[in-house]
Specification:
Metallo-beta-lactamase, Chain A; 6 helices; 13 strands
């Protein structure tokens, strides 16, 4: 049975842009990749319901990294739909304590917590994941043909999800607003460049980013990975 893909584009707080979530459906089972921010919760739930996703049918929420604009609805959706929340352990402090710099070398915890508060990640949205993902893990238990890739750079716990057809969900390592390029917010430039090189060797299909339209790795400028 083929897997159906629906892109859900949600507004970011304060009108600063948009973020992508991806709803995968296989039969009557659904998986959501990233959740957007809590400011767009009503639109997200309406979209899930419109796609036929009812409580008990959302088997998993897979988070590409811990930033509030990708994890802001995870706790709520877990309670509403009974889904398990999966992510990389390195970004745990971001979702358990609201510290957007917990897995980053830049910035400081106070600024990170202030940013999370201002942009919609207060304590009521904090959570602990149900399971951790790491390089090479497969999501076959959720009926999905996806393999986890560790792609640090944007954050230490950033992951990609690779299909057997060579398509990839890349989170915020690369965005494509104005064309594919490394995300402007990058914690570790050397790690990010290594991650992009890794993707060039593995990704042969479409890349679905956290921000912007889909693209291919052939469209990614070489200078961004040099």
């Amino acid at each position: 049975m083929p897997t159906e893909l629906k892109t859900i584009q949600l507004p970011l707080p304060l009108g600063i842009g948009k973020v992508n979530c991806y709803l995968l459906r296989k039969g009557d089972a659904f998986t959501l990749i990233d959740t957007g921010g809590s400011n767009a919760r009503r639109k997200l739930v309406s979209t899930l319901e419109g796609a036929g996703c009812a409580p008990g049918q959302l088997s998993a929420i897979v988070l590409t990294h811990g930033d509030f604009d990708h994890t802001g609805n995870a706790a709520y959706l877990r309670q509403r739909y009974g889904a398990r929340v999966l992510m990389h352990k390195a970004d745990l402090g971001m979702v358990e304590h609201g510290d957007m710099f917990s897995s980053r070398s830049i910035g400081n915890p106070l600024v990170g917590k202030l940013a999370a508060f201002l942009f919609g990640f207060p304590r009521r949205n904090w959570f602990s994941p149900d399971a951790y993902l790491q390089e090479g893990d497969a999501l076959a238990d959720y009926g999905l043909d996806l393999r986890v890739l560790s792609i640090p750079g944007h954050s230490l716990g950033s992951i990609g999800l690779l299909t057997s057809e060579g398509d990839l969900f890349c989170g915020d390592l690369i965005d494509s607003n104005g064309g594919p390029a490394l995300n402007r917010i990058m914690d570790d430039a050397i790690a990010a460049e290594a991650s992009v090189q890794k993707l060039r060797e593995l990704v042969t299909g479409t890349v679905y980013p956290g921000h912007g339209p889909p693209f291919t790795m052939a469209q990614m400028p070489e200078s961004d990975a040099a």
